[in-house]
Design a protein that fits this description.
Layout lengths: L1 E4 L2 H5 L1 E3 L5 H12 L9 H10 L28 H9 L3 H14 L5 H7 L3 H19 L3 H22 L1 H6 L6 E3 L2 E4 L5 E4 L5 E6 L7 E4 L5 E6 L15 H6 L1 H9 L4 E2 H8 L3 H13 L3 E6 L2 E6 L1 H11 L1
Parallel strand pairs: 1-5, 2-6, 6-8
Antiparallel strand pairs: 1-4, 3-4, 7-8, 9-11, 10-11
Helix pairs in contact: 2-7, 4-7, 6-7, 8-14, 11-13, 12-13
């Protein structure tokens, strides 16, 4: 059982992450790759990734558990791979040793390579660097546009639940078996884990690669990072096809624009992402706005656009 003991300040500082973290998603993917239980959505994905994963990336599997655990230094919630790798490689020896000892106590083997990592051996950490880079290139890089689209659709939906139904609905809906006991959030977990928060807040971070219980990790700024399975995991987020009902309804360009606008975009940003002129992007936004699917607001010289509740509902039903 996972028990998160919150203060009122923590609950007043619940936020939703604004972007996916590539190394967090890589860690989740490597954990899900090792699962052999009832997650049929991921079965074809597992077979495909197992065939294509380069041997250079295999050392990661010595560090992360199919239970959803990994050394905390391995998957910092950084915005890009380069920044994340810098953080991984700068891990102090004491922290690396403590995290590797924790993982071996859970279910990871104490191999000679893991011992060398704990000793901050240069060659061992070079192997880790190459493994992370190879894993990212093989599993994350090609899927990154779909990961981003799925992440932003999920966080827009979760933010709407938070705004319309309140904190209780937003948190208890993250995963099955979540309940409140006073100021303590309880959730099913493979082992007993008690976390006591100290008013820094909680950030909700969906993962498109995880399909099980709630996961918790400390954020570098002191917040608690709650990682939960996105409603629509990556294997169900196939690229749009002509049979896509949303595309059939509003056209391919406007369907793409609506999916982009689960996050705020200026007209210039929208034009760039759609690969059209600003005038064409403005026209597409006007049609979506007049249909009630987006709203627009001017800020100085910039015009910002984002989805309405109706637009989010249309995207949600399209995914269904």
């Amino acid at each position: 059982m996972l028990r998160i003991h919150c203060t009122s300040e923590d609950l007043l500082r619940v936020t939703v992450a604004d972007r996916p973290a590539p190394l967090v998603e890589l860690g989740m993917a490597m954990e899900m790759l090792q699962r052999r239980d009832g997650h049929p959505v991921f079965s074809p994905w597992r077979r495909r990734v197992a065939r294509s994963l380069p041997r250079t990336a295999h050392p990661i599997l010595q560090l992360v558990s199919p239970l959803g655990a990994g050394p905390l230094f391995l998957d910092p919630p950084s915005d890009d791979l380069e920044e994340g790798m810098d953080q991984v490689l700068s891990t102090p020896r004491a922290r690396a040793r403590a995290e590797l000892r924790r993982m071996c106590a859970i279910d990871r083997p104490l191999t000679p390579w893991v011992r060398h990592l704990a000793d901050r051996d240069r060659d061992a950490w070079q192997i880790l660097k190459l493994a992370v880079q190879a894993g990212h290139a093989s599993v994350i890089a090609e899927a990154w546009p779909r990961i981003q689209a799925g992440f932003h659709a999920e966080t827009a939906w979760r933010s709407r639940i938070l705004a319309q139904q309140g904190l209780h609905a937003a948190l208890t809906g993250l995963a099955p078996s979540i309940r409140w006991r006073g100021m303590t959030l309880e959730a099913a977990f493979p082992r007993d884990l008690d976390l006591t928060l100290h008013g820094r807040g909680i950030t909700l971070q969906p993962s498109l690669f995880w399909a099980d219980h709630l996961l918790a990790a400390p954020h570098p700024d002191g917040r608690l990072l709650l990682i939960y399975p996105a409603v629509t995991p990556l294997p169900l987020r196939d690229p749009s096809s002509p049979a896509d009902p949303l595309t059939a309804l509003v056209g391919s360009t406007r369907a793409h624009a609506l999916r982009l606008l689960v996050r705020q975009h200026t007209t210039t940003d929208l034009a760039h992402d759609l690969a059209v002129s600003p005038a064409a992007a403005s026209m597409q936004a006007k049609v979506l706005r007049e249909a009630g699917l987006i709203v627009s607001q001017r800020d100085g010289k910039a015009m910002w656009h984002w989805c309405t509740a109706l637009g989010l509902d249309l995207l949600a039903h399209g995914r269904a």
